[in-house]
Write a structure and sequence with these properties.
With 223 residues, the protein is an all-alpha fold. The protein has five helices and no strands. The chain starts with 25 loop residues before the first helix and ends in a 47-residue tail after the last helix.
Length: 223
């Protein structure tokens, strides 16, 4: 018997800090806030993605036959394809953001490149799992799993590098915008995390621990 064993794949889901400061000019503040509002869209759809992947992980741990394995793998590809569509929409919104500040424009363009990179890597992971979805017989499954695992680990490596770049970009723009995590009158500024909860950079995991393709294991021996 074959079972699916999840393996982590980090995905973007973080935030820029929305500003309510007098420390820089109103034009920069408004543009920083505009950019933050677009980037922070990831908070919503990545939370949904994480829920889908958790469901996949549970289903993958309970597979008993080839049909179960293919159904779980199909759930994974559907979840990944959905977040790829969301990231594509994010790219459009980023490009449509009205920014005049040259530094913010440069950040926006760099961030678009990172999001495009995430999209490509996630598409690679989806295609890798599709090798399991389309396997015609259990006899061919081990070879499909081996190739799927190889392709997925390439995607994982790319995503890890992109996550580091993304975290650096988020930190840089928050510093440039003069972001403060101190709320006024006991309340967090609009779009900012509540007091004591620092928004995670967009490349960090929560936001999705996306399991990678299946591995073979003896019946009842999956961990």
């Amino acid at each position: 018997m074959l079972t699916l064993r999840p393996r982590p794949l980090g995905v973007s889901a973080g935030a820029l800090t929305v500003l309510l400061l007098a420390g820089c000019g109103p034009s920069r503040v408004s543009q920083c806030n505009r950019l933050a509002e677009v980037v922070n869209q990831t908070q919503g759809f990545m939370s949904e993605f994480e829920t889908e992947i958790q469901s996949f992980s549970q289903n993958a741990s309970q597979v008993r036959n080839l049909d179960d394995i293919k159904a779980a793998a199909s759930q994974y590809t559907s979840a990944v394809d959905g977040v790829v569509t969301d990231l594509d929409g994010l790219v459009g919104d980023l490009r449509g953001a009205q920014l005049k500040d040259d530094t913010l424009v440069s950040f926006r363009d760099d961030y678009v490149g990172v999001v495009e990179g995430f999209k490509g890597s996630l598409q690679q992971a989806s295609s890798a799992m599709d090798l399991v979805v389309t396997v015609p017989s259990e006899a061919e499954l081990p070879a499909r799993i081996e190739e799927s695992q190889k392709q997925t680990m390439e995607a994982v490596s790319s995503i890890e590098q992109l996550s580091q770049t993304e975290s650096q970009l988020i930190s840089t723009v928050n510093s440039y915008c003069g972001a403060s995590t101190q709320p006024a009158a006991g309340e967090a500024p609009a779009g900012e995390a509540p007091a004591g909860q620092t928004p995670a950079p967009a490349g960090e995991v929560p936001a999705g621990q996306t399991p990678a393709p299946a591995e073979t294991a003896p019946a009842g021996g999956g961990q």
